[in-house]
Amino acid sequence: MTDNLGPLRQAMSDLAEHGGSADMYERSLHRSRQVQRRARVATAATAGVAVFAIGGAVALATANRPNPPAPVATQAPSPSVGPTSAAPSVAPTPAAPSRTPQSPSPDPSTRTSNRPRYPDCPSAKALERLADLPKDWHFVPSRVQCWRNWATASPEGPTVGDGIYLFQYRAGTGWRYHSQGSGYRCEDLGITTGNPPFCEMG
Amino acid sequence: MSNSIDDLFCEFVRTRSPALLRTAFLLTGDRHLAEDLVQDALARTHRGRHRLDDPGHFEAYTRTAMYHQHVSWWRRRKVAESLPGDLTDVIQPGSDHARRTDLKLALHQALDRLTRRQRAVLVLRFFEDRSEAEAADLLQCSVGTIKSQTSKALARIREMAPELLSAVMEEA
Prior knowledge:
The complex is a heterodimer of chains A (202) and B (172).
Chain A: H1 6-16, H2 25-63, H3 124-130, E1 138-147, E2 150-156, E3 164-170, E4 174-181, E5 184-185, H4 186-189, E6 199-200
Parallel strand pairs in A: 5-6
Antiparallel strand pairs in A: 1-2, 2-3, 3-4
Chain B: H1 5-28, H2 31-47, H3 58-72, H4 84-87, H5 96-112, H6 116-127, H7 132-139, H8 143-160, H9 168-171
């Protein structure tokens, strides 16, 4: 016994007549343009988000870029010993900082980060190795002060003293002992601008 | 080519919309949903009209879009509506017209209980008179799937509306 599909086909044909005969042209055109508009907006939004994300990532990476290795006192001494030689325990290293603290600062418009213009302040222990301190004398860490490429340290020992030790940083040689005294004239040190705490201007 | 692609598309829509709506009504069971389905399929064809090398492909492209849209997600938008009222004609009991209306209502209810794919297969096979291979190609499935879906759909219709599938022996 085989199904006679004639009634089914006939019913389908009759039922399909209820589909109507609406004019679909304007509707389909409107729908097409609407979808295209949405697609354009979505594309633009996606592109915007992508640009924003990439720009943000680049800005973040630039801001977090590590500063160039700052010269530290332990790297500073050069093989050539100056007038006041460093302590013998200091291992001289030929590598000298490539950046001079007195070099002209970069144009602010081209600077990409707030890199320090001057070297990091050395520690009291590092300065002790550069200065020929008498026995039982040492520098007080809280009294090491830095100004630009200058550093001062107050010694403390068995007797009372009022002098300070002065150190200077130079490109190529790093931190070096400069002199010691109880008062300096800035002009004698070649300082003509600024307000250094260890000397008097004018 | 004297007519632009837009003119050809306009002509296609104006002339073929009723036929597309008939198929869409069988697929959706609702006139408004059918119009929405045809509208979306035509919009898709409109967006891709420049890619169609032959304007004669408009209808094939639109029908394919309709079936795919219907099978994939159309059912989700279906709203509960009372359709028999829309289909009720003036029936004269005992007349041939009354019998056809009864069959039409029975088919409408039966189609509503089929799966989307079963419904699409029935429309393709018994309304559009497509072969199993054509139906498989259009729905992007195997001929075996078309056969099995047809068999299952007819079995369900036989349960719900046996009068639609009167046996040859009975007719004889």
